[in-house]
Amino acid sequence: MKETLIVVGEYLGGKRNMPSYIKDLRALVGHRPLILNSASGALFNQHQQVLLQERTDTGDWGFPGGYLAFGEGFKDALVREFQEDAGLVVQPLQLLQLSDQNHYTYPNGDQVQPINCFYLVKYVSGRLLQQATDETTQLAYFDLDQPPTFFNAQHATMFSVLQQHYL
């Protein structure tokens, strides 16, 4: 059973927010495949449910997180992305998985091989988003035995990692 926290709103923008470094690369290479570094996090509530975001680009679910900006480390990117995606400040506690074998094509045609560091995080401060963003339409906590539809195989695998460790 999922515990829905908040409906953030309709998708307000025409494109996903991304670091200017990636925008600059895309301007040069178009939709061609890129290897990009990303960080994602698992935040549990008191009921052992994990926070997920419904994405504006696909309507499917994923973990809060995103791509590193140029010069940024995995943990710093995770903290920044969690604040952008969910409105929360978190602290990375433990690396749960490093994945580097996935490929994904975004709805706009951009192709990536995301190298992702997936962390267990703890809540530090903040409040869940109350307004729409260009990446998040809804935030909800999910039971580990009831996964939603994920936007790509990498996020489904990350959910499986949690199931193996915490079920």
Question: Explain this structure to me?
Answer:
The chain is an alpha+beta fold and 167 residues long. It has one domain: Nucleoside Triphosphate Pyrophosphohydrolase. Helices cover 22% and strands 38% of the residues. The protein is built from three helices and nine strands, in the order βαββββαββββα. Strands 2, 5, 6, 7 and 8 form a five-stranded mixed beta sheet that branches. It has a four-stranded antiparallel beta sheet with strand order 1-9-3-4, with no helix packed on it. β7 and β8 (111-126) form a beta hairpin. The longest helix is centred in the C-terminal third of the chain and has 14 residues, at 153-166. Mean pLDDT is 89; it is low at 4-16.
Q: Structural class of the secondary structure composition?
A: alpha+beta
End-to-end gap: 14 Å
What overall form do the CA principal axes indicate? globular
Strand portion, in percent?
35-45%
Backbone CA Rg: 15 Å
CATH class: Alpha Beta
Low-pLDDT sequence parts: 4-16
Give the mean pLDDT.
89
**Total count of strands:** 9
